[in-house]
From TrEMBL:
Its cofactor is Zn(2+). GO terms for molecular function: carbonate dehydratase activity; zinc ion binding. This is Carbonic anhydrase. Binds 1 zinc ion per subunit. It comes from the Bacteria. The keyword Zinc applies. The keyword Lipoprotein does not apply. It holds the Pfam family Pro_CA. The lineage of its organism: Bacteria, Bacillati, Actinomycetota, Actinomycetes, Glycomycetales. Keywords: Metal-binding, Zinc. Zn(2+) binds at residues 103, 105, 156, 159.
Amino acid sequence: MHLRGSRRKLITGAGAVGAGAIAVFALDACSADGSGMGGEDAAAQTADVLSLKDFDSAADIWDAMLDGNQRWADGGAVHPDTDVALRESLAEGQEPRAAVFTCVDSRVAPEFVFDTGIGDLMVTRTAGNVYDPLVSESVSYGPAALEAPLLVVLGHQKCGAVTAAHEALLAAEEGTELEEHEYALPETVEALRAAYEASKGESGDPVDAMIKANVLLTVQALKEHPNLAELVADGELTVVGGVYSLETGLVTEVA
Ligand SMILES: [Zn+2]
C-alpha cells in the first residue's frame, strides 16, 4: 500500500476542490464506526493524512496547518505525530516543515493551534511577537539552516502585550497619566511603536488594528532579513501572517 503516494494525490486534488477536503477525509477516517474503512487501515490512513512531514511545498504545508487549525477549532484535534517511535527516530535529526513566530501567551501554543506533532514546527515566541536582532536570528534558523519552506508570523486576539503597548503609547501621545503597571515591558512597548503608528486611522478596534499591523510589519521585516531575503527572492521561502482568535480557535490569514 502506498499511503504516502495516495495522500499526496489527495492533497493535490484538495487544492482544486478546496482545503476542506482533507479535514473531511480525516474526520471520516477516524469516525468511530469506521465508515467503510477497516480499523487498521483507518488508523494508518488517518496518521498518514495528518502528518505535516510529508508536505514539501509551502502552500501544501500552510493548507495542512490550516486544516489542523480547523480541527482544533472544531474540537476535533487528533494530536498527530506524538508517539514514542517517532520521538526516538527524530533524535537522529529534525526537518521542521515550518517556522512559527508568535506570542508567549499560554493560550496560543502553535502545536495545539495547528494540530501538529513533534518535529513539525520550529517555534519562536516573545511577548507580542516582537523581534530584535537576537530574536530574528532564531526565527530565521528553521528556514535558513533547516530548509523549512514556510514561516508563519502569528499574532492573536486580545494580546496583552499589544494592549499594554497601545495604552502606553496613546497615553504618552496624549500626555495623560498612565496607571503604573507592576510588570511593565518598556522594550516591548518600544518595539510595538511602529505597529501603533501604522495602525492609526484604521477602522474598528484600535488594538485589533495594531495586532494586525504588527503581524504585517513583522512579515515584511522578516522577508527582508539578511538570512532570509535571498530564500524569499528565490521562491524557496514563503512568509505568511495570521491572527489567532482566542474565542473561535481559528487563525485568519492577514495580507
Ligand atoms: Zn500576546
